[in-house]
Amino acid sequence: MSSIKDVAMLAGVGVGTVSRVINNTGAVKPETRSKVKAAIEQLNYIPNEVARNFKMQKSKMVALMLPSIWNPFFSELAYYIEDELDREGYKLMLCNSGGKPEKEFYYLDMLRQNKVAGILGITYNDIENSVTTEIPIISIDRHFSKSITCVTSDNFEGGRLALRELVKAGASKPAFMGSITSVFSETMNRREGFVHEAKTMGIEHVIYEMPDPVEDKDTYYNNFFALHRDVDGVFAITDMFAAEYIDRASKLGIRVPEDVKVIGYDGIQDHPYFHPILSTIRQPVEEMARTSVRLLFRKIEGQTLERETYHLPIIFRQGETT
Questions:
Q1: pTM for the complete prediction?
Q2: Which of 64, 101, 113, 241 is the most exposed place for a label (fewest CB within 10 A)?
Q3: Does 55 reside within a domain?
């Protein structure tokens, strides 16, 4: 791999001149600039972005920390975040934590050392004591700490809407299926909205939860079917939970939507490859992603944000499961 010294030697100039050309700083004669660019192209030299940022004390790199890149919701979110960053000339560093706190601590420490411009992220863990205000941070759905701005969908209204749609579809005893995180998450408001609307409407309902992440799915779903076989409606905390429920229910001879109406949350399973197509509360994923980036830029510029949490509107998307 070529170095900046190799470029300087081939172009017949000093290392400082090559640096000025790369960073577009200082005065460099046009012919000299052309020589340096030709040498860079010939050697296929790629500047060390981190080293450049450290010297310039200004980074064009933003880190995105996710619990998993396999989840379709996270993948879609990452796509729009990268696109919005690219529009402003920033690059994305993807950090896949696997939901493990030790990996999140490692990434946070690494990010501080590399002086990224800021961090966007989702965490399932209590890492508040490891988060500082040295680097601008925006969280999505789950709060890093009370001092970090969070962008999320209107989860409470989503829960209310799901309950109403289940009842409209004919459910008389709906259940909420979810998981409880160790730290407060905006996603918990999906359950709160569901319960609030059920009580308001006088609807008998069931709440079924286990600690997040659910490590033993067999036990989780088997217990649900054993305890609540009589429910005729299910609102799952995510589309993935809903899809898993539908698959297991079908193996037990429970028909969807004839026997049980099902609604998910996220809006990721809308492709014809999914059968049946899931009725779901659709999050505004693109708007959440782009809003997060724009708010991060404001924090990078030293602005004070007017809100602690930004709630974006949701919609119900009818599928084949209600």
A1: 0.77
A2: 113
A3: no
